[in-house]
Design a protein that fits this description.
By secondary structure, this protein is an all-alpha fold. The protein has 9 helices and no strands. It starts with a helix and ends with a helix.
Length: 207
């Protein structure tokens, strides 16, 4: 087979594999949100996705599927790699309107992934792999916020640890779940509240 044709067929296989993975991850996300982690089996995922059990198993253990399902639901299309990054240091994060705009894709992600996150929270109490995944996600969130503070530069280094503690709660699935799912707030009301809290925290820390 000529090299060009071989490359073409290789690309077709890669595209087909990506589409199959996306279908499996979507099926897993729906089942985890509906039945929880313990109540979802790989056989159910295979049936929902319309693929073989072996194909599902090729993506790794169930904990891998939970992580992929969460990340797919939370990130979605919001973090388009072709989108040019903004310069965080040029933004006035003490202005709640600015922060509210930045939080829009984050809150959309909370809304899209809340069912899976609840499944993860429940599973973490009894399933070691789910507990480890939850810890990894929380650590990643904290690291992202600490990086944001360092990049912006207005918060003195000595105060960053405490400020990160506060922001990690304010902008979180936990806070979203409390206010939106438990208290009945709209996602937009939570976003505006979180933006006001973030701005107030950063103003106080920058003095």
């Amino acid at each position: 087979m000529p090299p060009a044709r071989r490359a073409y067929h290789s690309q077709l296989r890669a595209d087909r594999a990506r589409r199959t993975r996306a279908v499996i991850v979507q099926a897993a996300a729906e089942l985890f949100a509906l039945h929880g982690y313990a109540g979802t089996t790989l056989s159910q995922v295979a049936q929902q996705a319309g693929v073989s059990l072996e194909t599902v198993k090729s993506l790794g253990p169930k904990a891998n599927l939970l992580r992929a399902a969460f990340e797919s639901s939370f990130i979605g299309d919001e973090r388009d790699p072709s989108r040019p990054p903004f310069e965080l240091s040029s933004l006035d994060l003490s202005n709640s309107s600015v922060v509210a705009r930045l939080l829009l894709p984050v809150v959309n992600g909370f809304a899209a992934s809340s069912g899976i996150y609840q499944a993860l929270e429940s599973a973490a109490a009894t399933e070691p792999e789910a507990a480890a995944l939850r810890e990894q996600l929380l650590t990643s969130q904290r690291d992202d916020l600490a990086g944001m503070l360092a990049a912006h530069g207005d918060v003195p280094p000595a105060r960053r640890h405490g400020v990160t503690d506060e922001l990690t709660f304010v902008v979180s699935h936990t806070a979203y779940g409390h206010f939106v799912l438990r208290c009945g707030w709209s996602a937009d009301r939570y976003r505006r509240w979180a933006a006001e809290r973030v701005a107030a925290i950063l103003r106080a820390a920058s003095r």
